[in-house]
Design a protein that fits this description.
Layout lengths: L1 H12 L6 H9 L1 H4 L10 H4 L4 H9 L4 H4 L4 H12 L42 H4 L3 H4 L3 E7 L11 E3 L2 E5 L4 E6 L5 E6 L9 E5 L2 E7 L4 E6 L5 E6 L6 E2 L5 E3 L2 E8 L18 E6 L5 E6 L6 E5 L5 E4 L10 E3 L4 E5 L14 E6 L5 E6 L33 E4 L5 E6 L4 E6 L5 E6 L14 E2 L3 E5 L5 E10 L5 E6 L7 E5 L5 E5 L19 E3 L2 E5 L4 E6 L5 E6 L3 E3 L5 E3 L9 E3 L2 E6 L11 E6 L1
Antiparallel strand pairs: 1-39, 2-3, 3-4, 4-5, 6-7, 7-8, 8-9, 10-12, 11-12, 12-13, 13-14, 15-16, 17-18, 18-19, 19-20, 21-22, 22-23, 23-24, 25-26, 26-29, 27-28, 29-30, 31-32, 32-33, 33-34, 35-36, 37-38, 38-39
């Protein structure tokens, strides 16, 4: 009865959609999209922000290609129209906002390039390039808003180079915008959705923009025009993807690879698991692979069968979810890995791994949580494909931060979903200190990244939780559909930790949601720092600036509302998750909207200045 009620509620919004779409959705899609707390699938309400054309593309060649293989072309259209409440062919595109200035792109100016602003992934912008002081931050005002059409996410981290913004969208588009006005220079359409930050570099006397998509394809396009230069499939596993931003140095592009099998074992017939995380070095001029190193060195092999007779495989997993960190002094690349998806568990999951920049040889690995084998089947009543260890799912989803202390000691600052921040000796991998900021969990602890000014590590805590309510849906212990929403009283907090000792300097209290709907105080998004100021976004939709001296809030903007946009589309902000803000040239750029995990959907990029 609950399933019927839910489907009828969604169907009432899906005007003119073929009624067969509801049955197809229930048969092929509901197990993931109605269990969004256990999977990475967006809730049905979030999918209504998409166009039916983009849903069809996802089923044909995007992240849902495998699920769409069982559907005919007509079935895919029916499901798409049912889920979005829109008819094929009725999509509205932006008609205004194109830049009149068509001069060639130049990389000069105050820039923030790639995910972490520098190769060390500090997410710290010095005063000269930030163009902002703490006093100015308190006076920031909204200057313009850009809408990402037909998506429920704003999960691409903006790159600012040469007065232009390069930003990815879940709708497959990469946009080049003017940093001051938000007008659009060009858009490039990838084969699948893109969430990586864009890395801009000069390659063979040409400025190029490089990124990866959700089908593990890496791209290089002309930064001036968006013209494709090359694209290359970096990993052949059907569920591999690129989530972390690629890093560039001296003609090589270092690409992190995510083994995307975490949710696939929800299907009891799925043979779990054979995907492995990896780091690949590509020739930036051609895309040719120079070397590739897997985080799990042993090739997966059959390990047994489930109770129903499905074959099992292992070892697997240890995905790289974040941008690699480059040590130019020692010619080392550091990556952070996630858990294993199946047993046997390995010593390289939930770890920081050091690789030789020249050869890809693994130099050392420091593991923080042993025997962490987990996948989304562990949330289902049958637990058919769940490894016996069942987690605890304590991935390292954030890039290690490389800093040099005042005494010359080189330290890696490491964030983990366990709720613990770690300090490592960058040369040996030895743990120097540990500091707990949250209880941790599947969506808990430190999610997408911290920041450092070289003295302190600035850490935001997620610990997002749920309670029964009327906004989101999940499965109970018996597999029945139940309603729930994010817990407005659990999670959040921002912390300053001494980078040398691991001692707490200060702690800022979590936000208070009050009666705000779909609100969580969790702070899951990456943190950004400039001298005197720490920026941290919340699942409640607020972007806040904190004093780095004592953690007091000095500026606060609620992004979870509707906006008029420079590209002529009505759009809304929502939960802030994934990327943190980008700061360059006196401006702060904030992606807003994250219609996953019970957060409020949205699809905007906000630009702030004095």
């Amino acid at each position: 009865m609950r399933t019927i009620a839910f489907l009828s509620l969604i169907a009432s919004a899906a005007f003119a959609a073929d009624p067969d779409g509801a049955a197809l959705y229930k048969q092929h899609c509901a197990i993931c999209h109605e269990n969004s707390g256990a999977t990475r699938a967006p809730a049905p309400a979030a999918l209504r922000l998409m166009s039916p054309e983009n849903v069809v593309k996802a089923l044909e060649s995007g992240v849902m290609k495998d699920q769409g293989a069982a559907l005919s072309a007509g079935d895919k259209e029916n499901v798409a129209e049912f889920l979005t409440g829109k008819m094929i062919g009725a999509q509205q595109a932006a008609t205004v906002g194109m830049c009149s200035d068509v001069n060639a792109f130049s990389p000069t100016g105050k820039n923030w390039n790639g995910w972490g602003a520098d190769l060390a992934n500090t997410r710290f912008q010095p005063a000269e390039t930030a163009g902002l002081t703490a006093d100015q931050v308190s006076k920031l005002k909204l200057k313009w808003v850009f809408a990402f059409p037909n998506t429920f996410l704003a999960n691409g981290s903006p790159t600012v180079v040469g007065g232009r913004i390069f930003v990815a969208s879940a709708n497959r588009k990469i946009y080049s915008l003017d940093a001051k006005s938000g007008c659009q220079y060009w858009a490039f359409e990838a084969e699948a959705g893109v969430r990586t930050a864009i890395t801009v570099a000069q390659v063979d006397h040409r400025q190029v923009a490089m990124f990866g998509d959700q089908r593990a394809t890496a791209y290089s396009v002309d930064a001036s025009t968006g013209e494709l230069i090359w694209k290359i499939k970096v990993d052949d596993h059907p569920r591999s993807k690129i989530v972390g931003a690629p890093a560039y140095l001296n003609g090589k592009l270092y690409v992190p690879i995510t083994a995307g099998e975490e949710t696939s074992p929800i299907n009891p017939k799925y043979e779990c698991c054979t995907g492995r995380g990896a780091l690949a070095a590509l020739d930036a001029a051609t895309g040719k692979t120079i070397w590739k190193s897997f985080t799990v060195t042993e090739t997966p092999h059959p390990t047994g069968e489930t109770k129903s007779g499905t074959r099992t495989w292992g070892p697997s997993g240890a995905s790289i979810w974040s941008a690699p960190t480059i040590d130019t002094e020692r010619k080392i690349i550091y990556v952070a890995t996630g858990d294993n998806f199946s047993e046997p568990a390995t010593k390289t999951s939930d770890a920081v791994i050091a690789y030789s920049m020249e050869t890809g040889k693994m130099l050392w690995a420091t593991q923080f949580t042993e025997n962490d084998a987990y996948n989304s089947a562990c949330h289902l009543a049958s637990r058919e494909n769940c490894p016996p260890t069942d987690g605890p799912d304590f991935d390292l989803g954030a890039s290690p931060i490389l800093v040099k202390l005042a005494n010359g000691k080189r330290v890696l600052l490491v964030s983990q979903k366990s709720g613990v921040a770690h300090g490592l000796d960058a040369d040996s991998g030895k743990v120097m200190w540990e500091h707990r900021v949250g209880r941790g969990g599947t969506l808990g602890g430190i999610q997408w990244g911290s920041a450092s000014d070289g003295k302190n590590m600035y850490v935001a805590n997620s610990d997002i939780s749920w309670t029964k309510g009327e906004k989101e849906f999940s499965r109970d212990a018996r597999g029945n559909l139940e309603r729930r929403t994010v817990d407005p009283k659990t999670g959040g907090g921002l912390f300053a930790i001494d980078a040398a000792t691991g001692k707490r300097v200060w702690a800022a209290a979590p936000a208070v949601c009050g009666e705000q709907p779909m609100c969580s105080p969790a702070q899951s998004a990456a943190v950004t720092a400039i001298p005197g100021v720490i920026f941290s976004g919340g699942v409640d939709g607020h972007m806040r600036a904190y004093s780095s001296r004592d953690g007091k809030v000095i500026w606060d903007f609620d992004t979870a509302r509707e906006f008029e946009t420079v590209n002529g589309l009505k759009a809304s902000g929502g939960a802030i998750d994934g990327p943190g803000p980008t700061v360059a040239g006196g401006m702060v750029y904030v992606p807003s909207g994250y219609g996953i995990w019970g957060g409020k959907a949205g699809n905007v990029l906000l630009a702030f200045g004095e």
